UniProtKB/TrEMBL annotation:
Protein name per Swiss-Prot or TrEMBL: PhoH-like protein
GO molecular function: ATP binding
Nucleotide-binding is among the record's keywords: yes
A GO CC term assigned to this protein in UniProt: cytosol
Main location: cytoplasm
Signal peptide interval: none
All copies of domain PhoH-like protein, residue ranges: 130-333
Keyword terms of this UniProt record: ATP-binding, Cytoplasm, Nucleotide-binding
Lineage of producing organism: Bacteria, Pseudomonadati, Pseudomonadota, Alphaproteobacteria, Rhodobacterales
Protein location: Cytoplasm
Family: Belongs to the PhoH family.
InterPro entries on file: P-loop_NTPase, PhoH, PhoH2-like
Length: 339
């Protein structure tokens, strides 16, 4: 693939153009996306204009932004050359991530870790390859692999639980742990659900659905059902952890802001030999009764000085759901600060 900077096409042109030539026209079609939707996404995000002529893409606009768009298009084309698809989230990730440290990561001591491929952080599961989309997510995933206990704290939609479950599935597939245990406090989010009919599992399933959703993204349905039946994968309310010692397991506590101080202490002290624990939560969404202290806040205060326990924090900038979610979170945060 060739890149060159062209002079202005006319005396009225606002800036030079960047010309990119792609040898494989089939891959170029995939790069552009259906109805050129990938090009449109890049144009909107960077404020440039991209014109396709044959096997060439010409980028117009501010020179610095043109260069950024050219680098992005080159990275995405290399991704296609390696046999991986390009989706909207790949464009989003490349625009958000700082790639400056990847060379060092590829050649440094971390290069022995299975999550690194050429300096990129990747999580391999049975159904898909998961890649962090922000620098905060990237740092979080590294800590999930490197520490026996890790906290992920921040607003909804920042990938805290999704990435934690992905790493758990990856470590299970690679044989680093024997089982996966996912749990949440069974606390109602401001509503009274009343009596729920059915078995014990059916009663708590509505609280656990986000964890099922994440697992379904990473494991084929039949395999997941078998692993659940064998109790190799468990999804249970936090209260069910009492009295257990969890050895050689990957354990995730989701929505930890809704655990009381005593529940948090109970959970953290379940850590057994060969196990890893991940605790995720959002301090702004506590659903505990008024006057009951969140165990997540106490854990932050008490455990921060302990080595080998990592704390990663996310903000609205790390939201990877619909762009409106980030705007909503920022609006509420601003209101809290001014109120």
């Amino acid at each position: 693939m060739a890149t060159s900077v062209l002079p202005p096409s006319s005396e009225h042109a606002p800036a030079p153009e960047v010309l990119l030539e792609f040898p494989d026209n089939r891959l170029l079609i995939e790069l552009c996306g259906e109805f050129d939707r990938h090009l449109a996404e890049i144009e909107q995000r960077l404020g440039v204009q991209i014109i396709r002529r044959g096997n060439q893409l010409i980028v117009h606009g501010d020179p610095e932004l043109c260069q950024k768009a050219a680098e992005l298009l080159s990275l995405l084309y290399e991704r296609l050359e390696s046999g991986r698809p390009v989706e909207r989230e790949d464009i989003d990730r490349e625009l958000r991530l700082d790639r400056s440290d990847e060379e060092a990561a590829a050649s440094g001591p971390d290069s022995q870790m299975e999550m690194f491929t050429g300096g990129k952080v990747e999580i391999k599961t049975r159904k898909k390859l998961v890649e962090p989309r922000t620098d905060a997510q990237k740092a979080y995933v590294k800590n999930l692999y490197e520490n026996e206990m890790a906290f992920g704290i921040g607003p909804a939609g920042t990938g805290k639980t999704y990435l934690a479950v992905a790493v758990g599935v990856s470590m299970f597939i690679q044989g680093h742990v024997d089982k996966i245990i996912l749990c949440r406090p069974a606390v109602e989010a401001g509503e009274r659900l009343g009596f729920l009919p059915g078995t014990q599992e059916e009663k708590v399933d509505p609280y656990m659905q986000p964890l099922y959703d994440a697992l379904n993204d990473f494991l084929p349905g039949k395999q997941l059902a078998k692993l659940k039946e064998e109790k190799t994968i468990e999804i249970a309310p936090l209260a069910f952890m009492r009295g257990r010692t969890l050895s050689n397991a990957y354990v995730v506590l989701d929505e930890a802001q809704n655990a009381t101080t005593m529940q948090m202490k109970m959970f953290l002290t379940r850590l057994g030999e060969g196990s890893r624990m991940v605790i995720t939560g959002d301090r702004t969404q506590v659903d505990l009764p008024r006057g009951v202290q969140s165990g997540l806040q106490d854990a932050e205060r008490l455990l921060a000085p302990i080595p080998k326990i990592s704390f990663n924090y996310f903000t609205a900038k790390d939201v990877v759901r619909h762009p409106l979610v980030a705007a909503i979170i920022e609006a509420y945060d601003k209101d809290e600060m001014t109120g």
